[in-house]
Amino acid sequence: MSLACGTRKAAQSVAPGTARSPRQLLAAPAAASTSSAAAPAAPQFDAAPPDAGQSLAGDAAAALPGEHWRDDLRSDESCRDYRTDYALSVYTDPHGPNRKYGYDGYGYREVEVSREIDGILRKHCVRVYHPRDGKNAQKRRVHVAEHIGPAWYRLIERTLSRIPWRHLQQVQAVVIDDRPLLHGVAPFNRQEPSKDARDGHTIWLHERLFEGMNHWASGNYGKYWAYQVQLDGVKVEGQAADHELFSPVLLHEIGHLVNYNVLNGSASDPTCPPCAQMCGDRKDCGKLDAAAREAPCATAYCTGFGHESGTENWAEMYRWYYQGSATRDLLARSFPACSAVFEGNGSSPGINDGLAAPWDRGLGQSEGYHRTLWSSCQEKPCKDR
Ligand SMILES: [Zn+2]
Fold it and tell me: Is residue 107 part of a domain?
């Protein structure tokens, strides 16, 4: 779920980086990356030029299939990962306790996501905040502090492991405080850091994501299956600390941050990619009947409530791409232009950055998918999606 999406401004395709030579990689100090950073900082590399042999090695590495390290990526030196340090830290907001969406006084732990890229282990730390007592910053009753446990952090870690590093590093913080009405919200940067905590790099979640099971939910154009985890009839709470669950709903939220930061190149630009546009983006809703307005929807949850833009449509497609092979194939069949955003075409390399599918890296997948019950046909699964 997100908040708004207008007409898209200039689309920015992000050029692929060149892999660094091994010596440069080893010499590169890890860029400082804290959860309070508003925008990713460019990593600093050793200024010494590599010799020809090392340069060739870098070029050769870049030519191999798979994800490669590049200039716009960064790695944290170390994380205070919840698996080795479960002490709850207390966050003091430098802007004080009254920011919109603020989380001053909440507790937090860190989740480390790591993987080897071009022969070096890379790390990314995400802070996960929650109220320490029974009330969130809006003084509403919440139960997170009583229920949160290692299985919750594990769900976040397993989900973040599915996506390219360039996407992963857009996610700086997760706040579990029941502020979203549904499962989650991933707002764009409001550019008022002293008054508003929404920075385009933070996701707010509802505790029901961890405590409930997959279920039907009402969207704008019918009912869709809310995939809290990849398996039906299972919930995160009560799982062992090393469970294998991931959250397609969280993938959807990450899809919003990727929309702003990777596709648009700005945490404060919420416009959606042309391939996912709805009539609100094209400004022709008034000319279309209900079925025609519904036609570009990936699922029944394809526009924000009160908006007719395709922000949610894109986030659903993002979920499809990283959830499982059945929905990745469905994306290629149903929305080839959006599939090409991930996989590239003749002129663009695609935002998946060559990363192998999660299910080919031992991270599991959703088997098949539940088709939407579409309003246009009396809430029946009348389409192949
Ligand atoms: Zn959304």
Answer: yes
